[in-house]
Amino acid sequence: MIDTRLTRELELAVPILGAPMGGRAGGRLAGEVTRAGGLGLLGAARYATPDWVAEEAAIAREIGGGPLGVGLMTWALDADDSLLDAVLAEDPSLVSLSFGDPAPYVERVHAAGALAISQVNTLDDLRVVERAGVDFVVAQGHEAGGHTGRIGTLPLLQEVLDATSLPVLAAGGIGTGRGLAAVIAAGAEGAMIGTALLASPETIGPEYARGKLIEAGSADTVYTSIFDRARDQPWPARWGGRALANEYTTMWHGQGADNETLSAAYDPEDPDLGVVYAGEVAGLVTSERPASEVVRVIATDAERLLRRPF
Fold first, then answer.
1. pTM for the full model?
2. Structural domain boundaries in the chain
3. How confident is the model over 35-83, as pLDDT tens digits?
4. Domain 5-204+287-307 has what CATH class?
5. How far is CA 204 from its chain centroid?
């Protein structure tokens, strides 16, 4: 067992969080990550409802039999924080408040008895979340799938570890035991993984997404805002999203098209014209495997690597 502050604080068997991927991480995925000894997070995206949170939390707890984690987008809470009330009503052990300043919400999370964590993409982000009083910080690198920043995981992780006394997790580009062992050896308390779980049958979202990911190589992604613009998702401009490249990105990424044009061309039911957010470890995902198996293999391989003689 890899013993870190994360495993001790949350009484986990392995230092792995399942990323709160909006539209992909529901109760089944979160529950299976927890059942394997980590902690799965529900992805409570901007369009999630209190009923969705309650239903998926119940599924996660039934499967995982352990703590519950939920991820929220801070910039969306700034417009309407009612979803945080719904999340806290489920008595989570951990709430992720990322992509914005979590200061208005951390006290409420703590008052509910939960830990507050935030993903950061720069040292300026780190200072913001430190002032807010979060318990853990996640250094999320440019390799990550979905919305992320522009600095690679390894440079960012080193910067953050040197710059804070907070316990640090790593995210972005971690898809095997080698990745987990690397960030633990660097000083991280664990990892948040997302893309490695996206071919698991427990994910929600379009049926074609798992197959597209399995087919993709690690060079087959693009960092872009066109999918947000096509779907009228008001993400702040500083965060693009890493997705699998397809015909849609070939046609429209970097072309300067307006939102109306992008929306007319977008089709979420078509694998060539819809979005599959995924990170640069796509090439390491070569088959459809249960999420619990993915987590156990990553943890077991990491422990073996960390114990090997040098």
1. 0.96
2. 5-204+287-307, 208-265
3. 999 999 999 988 899 999 999 999 999 999 989 999 999 999 999 999 9
4. alpha beta
5. 14
